[in-house]
Amino acid sequence: MPPAKKRARAYDPVKIRAAVLAQFGNVQRAVGTLTPGQLALPTRLAGWTVRDLAAHVTMAVETVSRNLERDEPAKAELTLLDWPFATGARAADISDGTLALAAAHPDPVALYARAGERLAAALDGACGDRVLAARTGAITLADYLVTRTVELVVHTDDLNDAVPGLDVPYDRQALAAATRLLADALAVKAPGGATEVRIPPFAVVQCVQGPRHTRGTPPNVVETDPLTWIRLATGRVTWQEAVESAKVGASGERADLAALLPLMS
């Protein structure tokens, strides 16, 4: 795990809570419209159907409810910028748990109703400084909710990719937080000031070792949109694919980020 030496940016805890609830609600409403045939469609996540993916989204928020029910650790061990690099070790367990959950709950509408009620109840009055015993490491509730925006936005995109015409909307605050956290994670993985990565309208970060520019247009610039950035950071699309499809603009000898991506697996 790369050391998180960069200080995490501040997130408004009220807006983040609202964003998590809003994006989960967007997915919940969309899942409620899916037919049995759509639920059986494959997704870009190997071995997962749409039903499995939908079940996984409830897992992403159930961890909030479940962790608030557990005893509180003495202190937080995981910072927000550690989290993107701490998830890979649990990939196999997450996949197994997802498939088991989907098999045990064939009615996704009921599963979402329960998860949504538990999430809303758990967050009602919960303090952001409360430390959660998350499996990736002890982390404050406020930071953990920022990580939930990544989970929700990434899997909303997975659902939209799998089901033609589904078009689940993205809450703006959730999309912004997910974009910023993953942009900051890149700056942690490749510290420096030689390359400027622009993801309008949400984030600009400096990264990659080399000469630092002080004024004017940087010599190395990468620019893309939020969803393309999130897909790159999570391995949904490769750097080469994004560049060739003109989803990424890159100029300068230090503007090739292929070796640094994905950030999360």
Identify the overall geometry: globular
- N-to-C terminal Cα separation, in Å? 13 Å
Number of domains: 2
CATH architecture designation of the largest domain: Up-down Bundle
Q: Give, in spatial order, the strands making up the sheet with the most strands.
A: 4-3-5-6
> How large a portion of the residues is in β-strands, by DSSP E?
5-15%
List keywords for this structure.
6 strands; 265 residues; Four Helix Bundle (Hemerythrin (Met), subunit A); 2 domains; Nonspecific Lipid-transfer Protein, Chain A; alpha+beta
Helix-strand blueprint:
Elements: H1 13-31, H2 36-39, H3 50-69, H4 83-86, H5 91-104, H6 108-123, E1 131-134, E2 137-140, H7 141-162, H8 172-189, E3 195-199, E4 203-207, E5 221-224, H9 226-233, H10 239-244, E6 248-251
Short description:
This protein has about 260 residues and is an alpha+beta fold. It has helices at about 15-30, 35-40, 50-70, 85, 90-105, 110-125, 140-160, 170-190, 225-235, 240-245; strands at about 130-135, 135-140, 195-200, 205, 220-225, 250.
Describe this entry's structure for a reader.
With 265 residues, the protein is an alpha+beta fold. It has 2 domains: 13-173, Four Helix Bundle (Hemerythrin (Met), subunit A), CATH 1.20.120; 190-260, Nonspecific Lipid-transfer Protein, Chain A (2-Layer Sandwich). The protein is 49% helix and 10% strand. The chain has a 4-stranded mixed sheet. It has a two-stranded antiparallel sheet with strand order 1-2. Helix 3 packs parallel to helix 6. The chain is globular, with a radius of gyration of 19 Å. The model has no long low-confidence stretch (mean pLDDT 94).
